[in-house]
Amino acid sequence: MASSAADAKVHQKAWLDSSIAEKYKRGENATKPFADVLVQKSGLTKSEAEAGNYVLDIAAGTGAVEAAIYSALPEEKWDTLKVLGTDISGPMLEYLKARAETEGWKGVETAIVDGHDIKLPPNTYTHIFVNFGIFMLPPTALPTCLSLLRPEGFIGITTWSDLPWIPLVARAIARLPTPRPYCPTAAEIETKIYNGRAWNTPAYVAAQLREAGFEKVQTQEEVRDVEVGTPEQFMLPMAMPLAMVSTWWAEAEREKVLGDVQREMLEVVREDVERGDGRMRFSGILGMGWKGV
Fold first, then answer.
1. Which of 237, 259, 169, 232 is nearest to 17 (CA)?
2. What is the rounded distance in angstroms from the CA atom of residue 135 to the CA atom of residue 244?
3. What CA–CA distances, in Å, run from 51 to 54, 204, 225, 246?
């Protein structure tokens, strides 16, 4: 079993990698469709939505939430909106900042914020989004979000019902010569990704929002079939999950084994695409709540 020290070391190295944004951006094919639904549920797109909305995007990455917001809003309303995109990764935020400038998202600002120690002004934001990042944050994150929202403010979070790439990892490891590296089970991987919490169940998502103090809590499950692109493109956002899987392997051999698994996984994906299986089904859970008056 991987140690927490190994987890932290690999996690930090991956998020601070200068190429992480390029790798991660491709993953928006899977994450943005769920952000689109959250934005619609949030009320930001309603014609009567007030000017002065201030959005906080926690674990913003390359800007899937920002893309969802600005694609849903008429361009004449862009100047009435402020968005603060936060992340622990400087390279991610540099990418988001440049993207905002290119796209004309004038209201977007960025800030490095550690999700384990969120220090932002209370009663400030009208909307908070955490798109596929809540399971990486500590139990204190949702109560903190409640304190950051203005009265009647909205929170929207997303998490995965399952992880469809796990069987591909298992197939890749099975193709390696013996002695093969340890192949963690789906349950082990899910436990690590969700930090031992049941973030892959709607009931748990709803319970966490209610316990944090949110009202009118709702959850819904959504399924999207996503075009994975070329095998090489599919493998780009797999850098982070595979880095996490690598923590089960001895540090001395980790880099070599990771390279071997990446190579075999690429071949697995190529074979699937050649058979016409170039799409992947992603199942997500949306959790929504509002702060009281």
1. 237
2. 14
3. 9, 34, 35, 47
Angle, vertex CA 256, rays to CA 179 and CA 188, nearest 5: 65
Neighbours of 123 (CB within 10 A): 11
pLDDT tens digit string along 183-224?
Answer: 999 999 999 999 999 999 999 999 999 999 999 999 999 999
How many other β-carbons are positioned within 10 Å of the β-carbon of residue 79? 10
Q: What is the pTM of this model?
A: 0.92
| Nearest residue to 235 (alpha-carbon basis) of 199, 273, 181, 200 | 273
CA distance 243 to 251: 12
Contact (CB, 8 A) for 156 and 128: yes
Q: pLDDT digit string (tens) for 161-175?
A: 999 999 999 999 999
Label the pairing between strands 125-131 and 54-58. parallel
Q: Which fold has domain 4-290?
A: Rossmann fold (3.40.50)
For the chain, give every domain's residue range.
4-290
Is the Cβ–Cβ distance between 24 and 237 less than 8 Å?
yes
β-pair partners for 225: 281
